[in-house]
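Following up on my earlier message about flavin-adenine dinucleotide. Here are the inputs again, as you asked, copied directly from the submission form:
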Amino acid sequence: MYDIGIIGAGPAGATLARLVASKHRVLLLNKDRQKCCGGILAPESQKLLAQLDLALPLHTLANPQPFAVTVIDINSKLINHYPRQYINIKRNKFDQWLLSLLPESVDVRSNAVYKKAGVDSKTVEVNGDYLIIHFTENDEPKTEKVRWLVGADGGASLVRDQFFGTDPRLKKYIAFQDWFDNNEIETQTDSLSSEINFQNNYVGIFDNNLTDFYCWTIPKDDQLLIGSAIPLQTKDENPLLPDARNRFKQLKNYLSSIGLNFGQAQKQEIGLIVRPATTNAINLGRNNVLLVGEAAGFISPTSAEGISTALASATALANAINSNKNVLKEYKKNTKNIIWNIRLKYLKKPAMFNPRLRRIVMQSKLTALRK
Ligand SMILES: Cc1cc2nc3c(=O)[nH]c(=O)nc-3n(C[C@H](O)[C@H](O)[C@H](O)COP(=O)(O)OP(=O)(O)OC[C@H]3O[C@@H](n4cnc5c(N)ncnc54)[C@H](O)[C@@H]3O)c2cc1C
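Thanks, got it. Here's what our run produced:
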């Protein structure tokens, strides 16, 4: 029997496990995976790591460290640059490092997948004061008893969907990210791309014909990442992948058309981003089932940056659990500021994603397109 069963060992799950471990018996289940991520730590994430007294070890860092963002607006054909200090990381090394900080008392099960045991059977049975969770570990079916179940299982959270149903206010995006060898990257002289420092800057690309979110390029060691977040077109779970893939192809065609040559992709990744339509869609949980990180809907609606809100919400939940008071009530109190920060980003959203407003902002050279 465990006090807390955490599903998912991304930044949210690993941080929560670490912060509650001294007072509670913790089980941490994690499906092995390589997270599809840009690996950019925005100033908010840097501040949180400092507050958690964590210094990034060298092996988690990638080169270069971007000091500037370039914004390309394909609709208005405008380009802007503005300063912003990011930390460029190797995302999988970062996640492994967070896991390495866990005390031995945390029971970490890797290759463990919390899942439905069958089409009609329930994954969790409520049994008095505890829950019985069903999962597979190295493909073997297992069960454990936990007092609290925490879904830290990311945007495609099964815990959230299972207990709270699918919420239409959580808009789903499919992210494609291709990795290209820097040796093959060239910008044609006198082309538009020669004005953009793809090798050093983080580049955000906006085109409302492709997506109502955005696309990006990120330099990472000896590679360049090209990615896009494309809305899923249907209300149900059918992702209409061919359409989304086609749009990603259009993005790469556009980059070629402005003179960026990038050869063949060395690696192709795919991921899911869930972007709540409003902060009311953020779901902290109910009774003894709680949600944290992207599973709860904590993510920037403007940049899809979610590492900072994963760290912040995990800290908020850990403080609530450690307080010995009503956990959900404390968790709500502790997340007020995080939700306010996200709310402020919603205010900025039209200036970034409405093509007319974006054009005005970019022409005025305001730096409102910052994350
Ligand atoms: C393409 C892309 C680029 C991004 N770029 C950035 C960026 O540059 N900077 C930034 O800050 N954010 C970025 N994000 C967002 C960021 O990656 C997430 O918001 C962040 O990882 C959320 O952390 P989390 O711990 O809540 O969830 P996750 O990091 O998603 O971790 C969830 C964990 O749960 C595990 N899991 C899932 N289901 C189960 C199950 N059934 N059983 C067991 N384990 C399970 C997964 O394997 C995973 O380890 C990006 C996202 C995408 C898709």
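One observation from looking it over: The longest strand covers residues 140-151. Hope that helps, and feel free to reply on this thread.
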